[in-house]
Amino acid sequence: MFNLILFGPPGSGKGTQSEKLIAKYYLKHLSTGDLLRSEIARKTPLGIEAKKFMDKGQLVPDEVVIGMISYALDDNPDANGFLFDGFPRTAMQAQALDKLLELKNTSINVMLALAVTEEELVKRLVKRGETSGRTDDNNGHVIRTRILEYNKKTSPVAEYYKKANKVVMVKGEGTVDEIFSELTREIDARMKKIKTSS
Ligand code: B4P
Questions:
Q1: Is the CB of 54 under 6 A from ligand 1?
Q2: How far apart are the first and last CA of the chain?
Q3: pTM here?
Q4: Are 142 and 136 in contact (CB under 8 A)?
Q5: Are 125 and 137 in contact (CB under 8 A)?
Q6: Which atom of ligand 1 is nearest to the CA of 86?
Q7: pLDDT value of residue 124
Q8: 91 membership: H or E segment, kind and range
Q9: Secondary structure (3-state) at 11
Q10: Distance, CA 10 to ligand 1 centroid (Å)?
């Protein structure tokens, strides 16, 4: 199994790059943002609760997101690996993920962290807000709250994986293909290492 976390602030391109990565490596894509938006669209109790936080640019409570990921892992017993996109976003989520993977005799191989300046993030999210219909993209105050939440609660998650020597920083500015090529270079190197050691 090969499990990777695509990490980065809101608008850093996690969703964009994930689509390309799953097509190349046949990993199961687990995006907590997409899972939550699907709950909202279906007006489930979980979605109705999550929407209150997402509309303000705040993180959804840990227990809700962890439960969702736990269910998704159990639902995909035959996956040959997972791409976690937008998860974990807090230290508690990171600890919970390690435990869930341990139960499946597997672990995170690498965290690829996209680095993008704040100015560029705001520009991308405002632009997406013009067409996406996402309520968290079309309000400057909400976008700023999302970036603040990231700086306060999510960026420490990288420290957690740094201690285990699993973090690689990748420049998240440039064309989508340039960034993709850098990400695949890092993944291929790690996959090759696993193959030669097994
Ligand atoms: P997410 O759905 O995870 O979305 P995101 O962080 O806003 O975007 P992403 O980084 O995927 O950017 P994208 O590729 O789309 O989160 C939404 C909300 O859900 C959170 O605020 C939170 O409330 C909640 N949530 C989700 N997970 C949670 C968790 N684990 N715990 C608690 N709450 C959680 O790119 C953005 C834009 O940039 C696109 O328009 C794209 O076209 C453009 N772009 C991408 N790459 C580009 C490039 N190289 N150059 C120029 N533009 C580019």
A1: yes
A2: 12
A3: 0.94
A4: yes
A5: yes
A6: 3
A7: 95
A8: helix 91-103
A9: coil
A10: 4
